[in-house]
Hints:
Blueprint lengths: L5 H20 L1 H4 L15 H4 L1 H17 L4 H20 L4 H23 L13 H28 L2 H9 L7
Amino acid sequence: MKRLDTRDLSLAVVFAALYSVLVIALAPISFGPVQLRVADVLIPLSALFGWPVVAGVTIGCFVGNVYIYLGPTDIILGPVANMIAATIILMLRRQRLLACITGALPIGLIVGGYLWLVFGFQPPSEFGFLPPLAAMIVSISVSSFIAIGVLGYILLVTLSQTGILEPLKAHGLKILK
């Protein structure tokens, strides 16, 4: 089993802090039946930096969800959804666009699957023609696709450029192939 080194731990802490700060600072749009969790743009970076990002976005989600308390289900299942999404992206990292699109799905399904209970049985007004559970899953899936599949993919591609990666590697940061 591979030993956790200080750089990996530090990177996980940085991503946890970034994720939780973005969630809390942008709380009005990070929570609710219709949301855009901007912090989710960090999830695709697991394709570039690996397991430290998976751990960081999982812990960061936990911290953000504890701070803006919506109940124990959100505190447990929100981070689980992030962990699954980041792991999928890490595993599919050689096909980045597919990885980002696929990585958005667990968040839509898991978070949308329980948020309709948190916010009552009324569907988001944008999707009022659907049953409440389906409406919430669609709403959260759309927002996850925007944050992860579009914005996160753009961030991943931008940070993957040689001019950006080489200085990071020169300072000892591990970059996945």
